[in-house]
Specification:
This protein is mainly beta. Helices cover about 5% and strands about 40% of the residues. The chain contains one helix and six strands. Strands 4-3-2-1-5-6 form a six-stranded antiparallel sheet, with no helix packed on it. The longest helix has 6 residues.
Length: about 80
């Protein structure tokens, strides 16, 4: 999965999208995040993406920390290497 989040100038990789029974009941998946070193960071609800705390990106190359990123939504942000 090549989805990434940016928060406070840090980039986190989405490693899992949970749709367990509890997530299905509330109709809100959770995203499990790790830093670019592979360390677990947090688990957030999909709704957290809409409070301007996080920006969602998709890696354009390979999904590593040297990739270029493009923001989903109405703004673009590039991490050029």
């Amino acid at each position: 999965m090549n989805l990434f989040l940016k928060k406070d100038n840090q980039i986190f990789k989405v490693i899992h999208i949970c749709m367990c029974e509890e997530c299905r009941k509330r109709q809100m998946p959770e995203l499990f995040l790790e830093d670019l070193n592979g360390n677990y960071v947090d688990c957030i609800k999909l709704s957290d993406l809409f409070n301007d705390e996080y920006d969602l990106f998709k890696a354009e190359k390979g999904g590593d920390k040297n990739a270029d990123y493009k923001r989903f939504g109405n703004k673009l942000w590039w991490h050029a290497t």
